[in-house]
Amino acid sequence: MAPLVNQFSETMTTLALREPSEQQDAVAALRAFIDAGSYAPGDRLPPERELIGDLGISRSILRKALDALEREGAIWRHVGKGTFVAGQAAVGDGAVAALAQQLTPVRMIQARLCVEPSLAREAAIHASRGAITRILRARDAARSATTWADYEAQDDLFHRAVAEASDNILLLSLFDQLNHVRRAVAGGTVVRGSARPPAEHSSFQEHDRIAAAIEARDPAAAQLAMRQHIGSVSDRLFGEV
């Protein structure tokens, strides 16, 4: 693998990463690095300090690229264990497309209701202090979003932070696959009536209740708060936003 990585690194030094394409180029570079290294599903990627050197990018840009690939379902991360290439079921566009064609938005919501409230319950039981901090950070970032696209990205990170806080790799992998299919099913179906989430956007208060219940170590309240939140999302998805 080392010769391939070295060859890739030499190629990447010729890339001039400039705004506003810097992050997009970094995402493409990270995908190319994974392909060049012949990483298989389940393989762990090198630590951040090595990726920074191999890709020739800053730590902040690397983390944005990792966030982007994580939202796509191409990788998954576990605090203290590293970053891993996702399984084919999570990243295969053909598999996702096939599922999306067979899954209605209603069925997708039903699947979320089966999984995510239980994840919130587990998070209230098992979350570390660091995991709670990541939930709170994602909650605050979603509230501060200046566009719907930014909000949706931060909302993704909030829900994944809750899943990660369950401290169960199998449940986290299940969430990642569900979320990847969810994006394929729901993408483009929501019509926004404003350029950014309004201050009274109901998800802000719903996120507050979920985070507060997890931080208070109240499994029943966390489970209920997540169930109510997904129900509210369903109402907005099929009605006016």
Question: What report would you give on this structure?
Answer:
- This protein is mainly alpha-helical and 241 residues long.
- 70% of the residues lie in helices and 3% in strands.
- The protein is built from twelve helices and two strands, in the order ααααββαααααααα.
- A hairpin with a 3-residue loop joins β1 and β2 (82-85).
- It is globular and about 45 Å long.
Number of helices: 12
Q: Estimate the helix proportion, in percent.
A: over 70%
- Which shape, going by the Cα principal axes? globular
Q: For the record, what CATH class of the largest domain applies? A: Mainly Alpha
Q: Using the coordinates shown, work out and report the CATH topology of the largest domain.
A: Four Helix Bundle (Hemerythrin (Met), subunit A)
- Beta-strand percentage? under 5%
Structural class: mainly alpha
Encode the helix/strand succession as letters.
Answer: HHHHEEHHHHHHHH
Biggest sheet strand order reads: 1-2
What is the CATH superfamily of the largest domain?
GntR ligand-binding domain-like
CATH architecture of the largest domain: Up-down Bundle
What is the domain tally?
Answer: 2
Q: Note the main sheet.
A: 2 strands, antiparallel
N- to C-terminal distance: 49 Å
Number of strands: 2
Mean pLDDT: 81
Question: Features of this protein?
Answer:
single chain, 241 residues, mainly alpha, Arc Repressor Mutant, subunit A, Four Helix Bundle (Hemerythrin (Met), subunit A), 2 domains, two-stranded antiparallel ribbon, 12 helices, globular
